[in-house]
Amino acid sequence: MRAYRNSEGQPQLGLRRRCWAEAAYALGTDPAEAKRRAWAEINHVDDWPLLT
After folding, report:
1. Which of 19, 30, 38, 48 is the most exposed place for a label (fewest CB within 10 A)?
2. Contact, 46 vs 39, CB < 8 A?
3. CA 39, CA 32: separation in Å to the nearest integer?
């Protein structure tokens, strides 16, 4: 999912957060917690927090 962070060739922070939240949810994280963590922990397009 890390490859899908660009829109029109430019990295987009919102897409990064959404992809991470979707991946976290798919791996069993509560959807509300996945969204909260995505917005709290991803502040740059290169951020990709570890799931704990």
Report:
1. 30
2. no
3. 11
Residue 19 lies in a domain: yes
Q: Rounded to whole angstroms, how far apart are CA atoms 50 and 44?
A: 15
CB 50 within 8 A of CB 40: no
DSSP state of 24: H
pTM, two decimals, is: 0.76
**AA letter at 25:** Y
Phi, psi of 11 (to 5 degrees): -65, 140
Quick check: 41 pLDDT over 90?
yes
In single-letter form, the type of residue at position 50 comes to L
| Total domains in the fold of the chain | 1
- Structural domain harbouring 13: 1-27
Tell me if 3 is assigned to some domain: yes
